[in-house]
Amino acid sequence: MRLDLTDLRLLLHIVEAGSITAGAARAHLALASASARIQGMEDALAMRLLVRGRRGVQPTAAGAVVVRHARLVFQQLERLRAELGDHAGGLKGTVRLLCNTAAMSEYLPEALAPFMARHPGVDVDLEERPSPEVARAVREGAADLGIAADNVDLAGLEALPFRVDRLVAVAAPAQARALLAPGAAAVSFSRLADADHVGLAGDSALARYLAGQAERSGRTLRTRVRVSGFDAVCRLAAAGTGVGIVPEPAARRCARALDLAVIELADAWALRRLVVCMRSLDDLPRPARQLAELLAA
Questions:
Q1: pLDDT in tens, 132-147
Q2: Rounded to two decimals, what is the model's pTM?
């Protein structure tokens, strides 16, 4: 049996992306080359590693074993690189960090920038995922660190506080007055469900979170347009296109330049505490441990 690091890295990319095509792109390999490598691994092991299902490519039982050990291999290599970096006079390594939409757009850039400036030898592989997927990926060893809402399953993980994130509604002033009951300072999500909405792209973590909340209340959001960022949501909301739901810092920032009403949501789930999560702070490679401590400071 002969498996090289490129094979193992490719397998991880495919499983994490749920697609051979996407996994090949992440590994910077042509699709034909990636398919040949997977076939070579399966021939060498005399067993199937991947199977196509309704949700894309999934690992077989044997594939899951290889994935688990591949993650351990790369974690050990990262620890080796970090320790050698200590001897070379500087912190070196790559930190795999997953986070939800709010953290990615509103809170993480200013928190991450000082760390990157202080440690030029450290790279951060950053990806946006919904909070439940962040926690699951960290638990399975697919990421060193995650930033997720603390209302998801964090069993088996250590968590450090990061930020308090409040979701609010934004709308043109006239529409906001129509949505608010007389004398009310907040509006329920169920009252907003019948309005036209301006939303983020459907694959964003926040869009999936809001769709889940609507489904739990037996409603479906009527989204007229989807855009790629909170500023665009606010601009379209201010123009009367529909109601948007964004983190409060984004709403307040945009309201300074736009004729935009910011409305508190009455639902308890709109107030979320974001945490930095990891399997074990003490067992993290030094770059990841220092980043976790900085984010939680």
A1: 999 999 998 889 999 9
A2: 0.68
